[in-house]
Amino acid sequence: MSTFRSDLSHTEFPISERISARTIRGSVLELIKKDHPDFDDNHYLSINELNDYREKYLSNMMQDQLGELSDLDKTVLESLNEKKLISDQLEDKAEKDTYGQRIADKVATFGGSWTFIISFMTFLLMWIAFNAFILLNKGFDPYPFILLNLILSCLAALQAPVIMMSQNRQEEKDRERAKKDYMINLKSEVEIRLLHDKIDHLIIHQQQELLEMQKIQLDTMKDLLQKHTKGEKE
């Protein structure tokens, strides 16, 4: 298999991965020249090296537009450099819920359901009917049901903070979901820019190949025409 030597790393690569400096976008080429001042239009590099500089250019562009890169932006760049899905990294960083958090979610879910309302109304009616009609207000909680009021107050005092805990967790989940959406959208935008750059490079490369083929065909036609002219003279 034929190979070539990269003018950047001086490493051997397959000839199919050779990229001419003439086909590289100007902004990316300037970035390469900052690290390798001697690199000019007559030099070559591999497609992997070009992709590395494209990603480096995008990183610099993001930093110029957004200022200092946040942890979310760095996560997106890491996923690009490592060729991983952003969802895989988000799953790795996801924290598991604690036992108390799961209990708070279940209490909030049950407390905001018709099952809780109907069952609690049934309990209240049974309590009132038992003390008022069966025990004739002579039982353990006669009218005005002071014990029942105490139970209701304790239940409300405990239920309210548990529901607030669950609501705060829901807000945290919403913020995390917004962060994930931001990172996915940012990566999509960056990858689309990379894709446009690669398509532009492919078009330029194909145009050069077509021009070379046309030159070869013209030279062949000239040779045939010259032979034909010589044959007629003879």
The ordered H/E elements are: EEEHEHHHHHH
Overall geometric form: rod-shaped
Question: What's the rounded overall pLDDT mean?
Answer: 76
User: What's the N-to-C terminus distance?
Assistant: 46 Å
Report the sheet with the most strands, covering strand number, pairing sense and barrel closure: 2 strands, antiparallel
Number of strands: 4
- Strands of the widest sheet, in order across it, are 1-2
- The secondary structure category is mainly alpha
Query: Could you estimate the helical fraction of the residues in percent?
Result: over 70%
Give the count of helical stretches.
Answer: 7
Uncertain regions spanning at least 5 consecutive residues? none
Query: What Rg, in angstroms, do the CA atoms define?
Result: 37 Å
Strand content: 5-15%
Task: Provide the fold topology.
Blueprint: E1 3-5, E2 12-14, E3 18-20, H1 26-35, E4 44-46, H2 47-66, H3 71-81, H4 86-93, H5 99-111, H6 114-134, H7 146-233
Antiparallel strand pairs: 1-2, 3-4
Compact overview of the structure:
The protein contains 7 helices and 4 strands. By secondary structure, it is mainly alpha-helical. A hairpin with a 6-residue loop joins strand 1 (3-5) and strand 2.
Could you please describe the fold and organization of this structure?
By secondary structure, the chain is mainly α. Helices cover 73% and strands 5% of the residues. It has 7 helices and 4 strands; from the N terminus they run βββαβαααααα. A hairpin with a 6-residue loop joins strand 1 (3-5) and strand 2 (12-14).
